[in-house]
Amino acid sequence: MISIKKITELAHHKTGLIIKKGDYVVDATAGNGNDTVFLAEKVGPVGHVYAFDIQIDALAKTAEILKKKELSDRVSLIQSGHEQLLQYVRNPVSVVMYNLGFLPGGDRQVTTKSETTLSSFKQALTLLKPGGMITMVIYPGHSEGRLEKEELMLVCKDLSSSDYAVLHLELINQANDPPELFVVQKIFFRPAE
């Protein structure tokens, strides 16, 4: 039995079951570096993490943590929006993680936007290996977060159930619009009959 205090821990648990040593993975929103470090530890020394953020402060903080943990050599820090995913990542990936919203401790006016998040998400779907997973932590407590949730819900509902399994999790006993988690897993190819 796992103990989950935050929805981000559940995202780590779910992706931790998928990632293998040597995998390629993406942190689409590096932020304070927590997901990047988690992914770097999971892929091991021969795997690789692509970590995106538009804010140089976020990437600097992430770089500092990676250096302390001696994980820098397995991570590419990319100062670009996650909607540029396909310009930087060419290999099939096992996991793409998003922690949307704004940088904790940063400028709350700088947030992820539904338009770029949807573009990135659609690109991420094309990169997923069979069995691969996308996790998206969404914060519906602010206007852009609500819009991201609404639009992602529509897109996820339209995904083919023969190609993807989609899960939406909410913490229903917490106040003030707590974060929510979308999990999208690409179904393994079935052999032809």
Q: Beta fraction of the residues?
A: 15-25%
Report mean pLDDT, rounded to a whole number.
Answer: 89
SSE arrangement, N to C: HEHEHEHEHEHEE
Instruction: Provide the structure class.
Output: alpha/beta
Going across the biggest sheet, name each strand in turn: 3-2-1-4-5-7-6
Estimate percent helicity: 25-40%
Annotated CATH topology? Rossmann fold
The helix count comes to 6
The whole-angstrom Rg is 16 Å
Q: Indicate the CATH architecture.
A: 3-Layer(aba) Sandwich
Could you state the CATH homologous superfamily? Vaccinia Virus protein VP39
Distance between the termini: 38 Å
Tertiary shape:
globular
Overall domain count: 1
Using the coordinates above, name the CATH class: Alpha Beta
Number of strands: 7
Q: How would you sum up the major sheet?
A: 7 strands, mixed
Low-pLDDT regions: none
